[in-house]
Amino acid sequence: MGDNKLFKLIVRVFIGFGVILSLFPFYWMFVMASKPNSEIYKTPPSLTLGNELFKNIHTVFTQTTFFHSVLNTLFIAITSTCLILFFDSLAGFAFGKLKFKGKAFLFTFLMGTMMIPGQLNIIPSFYLMDKIGWVGSYKALIIPGMANAFGIFWIRSYCTDAIPDSLLESAKLDGSSIFRTYRSIALPIMKPALAFLALYSFMGSWNDYMWPLIILNDEKKYTLMLALTQLKGLFTTNYPLVITGALLATLPLLLIFVLFSKQLIAGITDGAVKE
């Protein structure tokens, strides 16, 4: 019993230490955001909060189109996430539970696309967007990413174990179409996996910087990540302002994570391999 208690104590100490290490970067953002630019290079650095936080926040709001860019980013992120959930769940269900010719080859090819670095797709993707006249529009940020290999793989892995074949056979005997079976039977079972995929996709769209930088050419359409680049000077940069902007951009994601953390954890644990 004594050894068991000691082991639990050691585990809790390591977990607590890990939590502190995980939270420290966020605390450090608060510290740097509360300092004037003159103290940013101070050695040794101060670990205590300064008194410039609210001033820096006000400056971020006045020097950037912060709230307008937040609305732009929300529109893009929500629309992209909804499309990803629909197409990835539909394709994942098909790969996981349906039988059709070429299924193994198509899935192998799909997994192969995950090995291609995203940077290699930038030039051909931009060329295609330019040819169809989508440069400068939100369609170029939403449509090309409305289905992705990771989401299909995630839903397919979940459906394989979570949806019993007998349930699908019963629906087929009752005359249910494939789409109705997907809508009425598969989707409710997929909810934990869809919750994780929604959070993952939303955060990816929210934090995306490179593709909007290449596509968008109108400041009124800038996403939040692009709007924050307005804080950088031509010759000098006020780093506390930049960090303050990054902090404000991170807060909505933290709020979403806190609100939906249970669904996220459920999606990860329920998606584990079952014996």
From TrEMBL:
Species whose genome carries this gene: Lacticaseibacillus nasuensis JCM 17158
The family line of this record is: Belongs to the binding-protein-dependent transport system permease family.
Q: Where does it live in the cell?
A: Cell membrane
Per its UniProt record, what PANTHER family does this chain match?
Answer: ABC TRANSPORTER PERMEASE PROTEIN MG189-RELATED (PTHR43744:SF12), ABC TRANSPORTER PERMEASE PROTEIN MG189-RELATED-RELATED (PTHR43744)
Transmembrane stretches, start-end: 9-30, 74-95, 107-129, 135-155, 239-260
Which SUPFAM superfamilies does this one have?
MetI-like (SSF161098)
Q: What is its main location?
A: membrane
The identity of this protein, by name, is L-arabinose transport system permease AraQ
For this record, an example GO cellular component is: plasma membrane
- Domain named ABC transmembrane type-1: which ranges? 70-260
Q: Which InterPro entries match?
A: MetI-like (IPR000515), MetI-like_sf (IPR035906)
GO annotation terms (biological process)? transmembrane transport
Keyword terms of this UniProt record: Cell membrane, Membrane, Transmembrane, Transmembrane helix, Transport
* Pfam families reported for this sequence: BPD_transp_1
Q: Could you tell me the membrane topology recorded for this protein?
A: Multi-pass membrane protein
